[in-house]
Specification:
The chain is an alpha/beta fold. The protein has a domain of about 210 residues: 3-Layer(aba) Sandwich (Rossmann fold). This is Sugar 3-C-methyl transferase.
Length: about 425
């Protein structure tokens, strides 16, 4: 079924700027409010000596004047972002592993109590959430396009399917396993430009009394914290309650609950059901009222956000240059996907930050996308400790600082840039 705005992104114009101005959800006019220039694929870490042919695109975001969905203006082909060698592994963060264990236990205590329930996770990664489901003996399936992530999930005892979730794959899953009582997705649903196909897949697979539950970074928190680096290729949409409600209603669903989450610097958990299947929680109306007071449908809110990003960029570069001029050593901490936006927008080079430490084995020994800053293992961080560490994984600041307390005890200081540039 064809939906308004459900089309492929148009190509760049002669100056390399995207000419797409139609909303991918409703076909309305999208007005650009921020642009970060030429950017690489955020998780495309490079092998030293093999940097030729690196893919770049123009990163800009806009607000739909009709349905209020915030979205990117250029699309990176999905196969270039999510593939066998996709390096992110959810379980490598202790805090996120605990978070998803609690999510699974909640489902087991609520939605998955009936006879032979079935749960499907879209973007299951290494199976950290589904492992608890599997250990409980509940039928499950993780769907992820990364074969490497799926193999990691299977090693953990999780059943996985290497595929993109959409209507055709959902139909195949239903034929093999029956309807799903729960379809879950975390930090994946907003990654998908062709989001209508995913919702059609949910409609194909979800049981009549089932729920589609997804967690995503919350636009209100992104704006309030000035977290400009949450805008990158994988985050095609930035959700708020109003835009999500408009989206799901367009595809025949009803938003029945919303919860605020502390993870990722602020996120929301949305619960969607078939119309009339669940009574909407009062939280939905409360969130909508709060968003109206915050101006999340107003272009002026986002032009101010863009201005804040420029201030952070200038302040951060001034600090880094001043510290290097004084002979101080600085390294990066956390080769995150969002750091691609921060590094390349700010223009951070190896002269300022000679390397970035990260615990992900698949990233170590490679180069950061765009900037080609080397990625080193955690052992390099203390050999010896630098004077300053630029924390790209700022959303895990508490966990990281607790882990690296000896760094601060030795006199080291952290540089953070959200919500403003400051030293800890």
């Amino acid at each position: 079924m064809t939906r308004p705005g459900d089309h492929s992104a148009q190509g760049p114009d002669r100056e390399g700027r995207p000419d797409m101005s139609l909303c991918r959800i409703c076909g309305g006019t999208v007005t650009e409010f921020v642009e970060f220039g030429r950017q690489p694929i955020s998780d495309a870490f490079l092998v030293p000596g093999r940097t030729d042919g690196e893919y770049f695109y123009h990163l800009a975001a806009g607000l739909c004047q009709s349905c209020t969905m915030v979205q990117l203006l250029a699309e990176v082909p999905r196969e270039m972002m999510f593939h066998e060698d996709y390096p992110y592994r959810t379980s490598e963060s202790a805090s996120m592993a605990k978070h998803f264990e609690l999510v699974a236990k909640r489902f087991l205590e609520t939605e998955l109590t009936g006879p032979d329930p079935f749960v499907v996770e879209i973007g299951s990664n290494d199976g950290v959430m589904l492992k608890t489901i599997s250990d409980a003996g509940v039928r499950h399936l993780g769907v992820d396009p990364s074969a490497g992530a799926a193999r990691a999930a299977e090693r953990a005892g999780v059943r996985a399917r290497v595929d993109f979730f959409e209507k055709t794959s959902a139909a195949a899953i239903r034929q093999a396993d029956g309807p799903a009582k729960v379809i879950f997705s975390a930090n994946t649903f907003s990654h998908i430009p062709y989001i209508g196909s995913v919702l059609e897949g949910v409609g194909e697979l979800l049981a009549d009394d089932g729920v589609f539950v997804f967690e995503e970074r919350y636009l209100a928190d992104i704006v309030a914290s000035k977290a400009f680096d949450q805008i990158y290729d994988e985050h095609y949409y930035l959700f708020c309650v109003r835009s999500v409600r408009n989206l799901v209603e367009r595809y025949g669903f009803e938003l029945v609950d919303v919860e605020h989450l502390a993870v990722h610097g602020g996120a929301a958990r949305y619960t969607v059901a078939r119309p009339g299947a669940r009574r909407p929680n009062a939280a939905v109306a409360e969130f909508l009222d709060r968003e109206a007071s915050l101006g999340l449908a107003d272009l002026a809110t986002f032009t101010q956000f863009a201005a804040n990003a420029k201030v952070i960029r200038d302040d951060l570069m001034t600090l880094l240059r001043d510290l290097r001029a004084k002979g101080k050593t600085i390294v990066g901490y956390g080769a995150t996907a969002k750091s691609a936006t921060a590094i390349n927008y700010c223009g951070i080079t190896t002269e300022l930050v000679p390397y970035v430490c990260d615990s992900t084995p698949d990233k170590q020994g490679k180069l950061m996308p765009g900037s080609h800053i080397p990625v080193r293992p955690p052992a390099a961080f203390s050999a010896p400790y630098p004077d300053y560490a630029l924390l790209f994984a700022w959303n895990h600041a508490e966990e990281v600082m607790a882990k690296e307390k000896e760094f601060q005890e030795s006199g080291g200081k952290w540089i953070l840039y959200v919500p403003d540039v400051h030293v800890v």
